[in-house]
Specification:
This is FAD-dependent monooxygenase. 34% of the residues lie in helices and 25% in strands. The protein contains twelve helices and 19 strands.
Length: 384
């Protein structure tokens, strides 16, 4: 008999969690509060650890088909265009870059029909000894387990983790966009007080992000594209051209936040996943990747433990140390890359590092985060 889970949130983490449940023979209902299921945002990159998680979910090949290799970590530049480090033409790219919507669609396509309900804003979660009941839009839905993948401003975390502080502003803000521009290899340009990231993505497009400091959250401009272009007008090409090629309405301006470490990701039969548990600065490109890892580890724990409570304790014990360490590292990286005071020392260090050593560090197995291996999930063919 199939077991039943409720997944709250229809983003990449929520869909990955539902797909992982499907892999182990569970049935899941995904509740998404938006009226239309779509991934908000622009671009992203996925490192080898995330690609292994996608492989374990059974969609690695489909993801690779909509991704593009990016050498952003190998091409480090200054605003005047000079290179601090440069990828060689024969270097293998350890990362793939995506439009968020493309990766989201890969996960959605792999789910059984009817598993996702839109316009379903959750307002209450009630736990009993044998299950959990979720309320949305006047409807009550019961299940054995709730997976809360409802983002940095998680409703479930607010309802059940009542002592948890709200997301904290990190003193940084970012402009993001996607332009029609093909054949860019990917790069990171480091400036005093900010940086520009460029990734190639599928269908002849490029994703760009400008990250810099901000005195407070919520500062917005009447013309966001004009403001980004003004700030980067003297930076090397193709940065000004990328901004110019981005439709005005497609430029996104966000403030960067993360979560203080939670003492647990589990309350009874409810588990937090992804940004709801460990929202982090984007500076290590691991936000979505850690969500994918969460999904695989949670499903493996449920498949390997007879009791849900034991499975969730195992999930918490495995995921909390790794995700919180990754979040700490991302926060520290963000401070360094946007600190005007540390800029000169950082540039000098990168310039003096031997190219061979730099390439070794950004190889597929070059760091502990990327070397992660997922637990094995049962084949879906073993379930009726």
């Amino acid at each position: 008999m199939s077991r039943h889970a409720i997944v709250i949130g229809g983003g990449i983490g929520g869909l990955a969690a539902a797909l992982a449940m499907h892999r182990i023979g569970w049935h899941a209902v995904v509740l998404e509060r938006a009226a239309e299921l779509r991934e908000i945002g622009a671009g992203m990159s996925q490192a080898p650890n995330a690609m292994r998680a996608l492989d374990e979910l059974g969609v690695g090949a489909q993801a690779r088909a909509v991704g593009a290799p990016t050498h952003a970590a190998g091409n480090l530049r200054l605003p005047d265009g000079r290179y601090l480090q440069r990828a060689r033409p024969d270097d293998a790219a350890a990362m793939l870059a995506f439009h968020r919507a493309d990766l989201h669609q890969v996960l959605l396509d792999a789910l059984p029909d009817g598993w996702v309900r839109t316009g379903a804003e959750v307002t209450a979660v009630r736990q009993e000894d044998s299950g959990v009941t979720v309320t949305y839009g006047g409807v009550e839905l019961g299940g054995e387990l709730v997976v809360a993948a409802d983002g940095v401003h998680s409703t479930v975390r607010r309802l059940l983790w009542t002592d948890a502080p709200p997301p904290r502003f990190l003193g940084r803000t970012a402009w993001l966009g996607i332009a029609e521009m093909a054949d860019l290899p990917g790069s990171i340009t480091l400036g005093p007080g900010g940086y520009v990231l460029i990734h190639p993505i599928s269908r002849g497009r490029a994703y760009w992000a400008y990250v810099t400091t901000a005195g407070r959250p919520g500062i917005r401009y009447e013309e966001e594209k004009t403001e980004a272009a003004r700030r980067l007008a003297t930076w090397h090409e193709p940065i000004p051209a990328l901004i110019e090629a981005t439709p005005d309405e497609a430029v996104i301006h966000i403030d960067i936040r993360d979560l203080a470490p939670l003492p647990t990701y589990v309350r009874g039969r409810v588990a937090l996943l992804g940004d709801a548990a460990h929202a982090m600065s984007p500076d290590r490109g691991q936000g979505a990747g850690q969500s994918l890892e969460d999904a695989v580890v949670l499903a493996a724990a449920l498949a390997g433990e007879p009791a849900i409570e034991a499975a969730l304790r195992r999930y918490d014990a495995e995921r909390r140390p790794r995700t919180q360490a990754t979040a700490r590292g991302a926060r520290a990286d963000g401070r360094r890359t946007t600190s005007a005071a540390a800029y000169r020392a950082m540039v000098t260090m990168i310039r003096l590092m031997p190219a061979s050593l730099w390439r070794k560090g950004i190889a597929a197995d070059g760091n502990a985060t990327w070397r992660w291996r997922p637990p094995h999930l049962p084949s879906p063919t073993t379930h009726p």
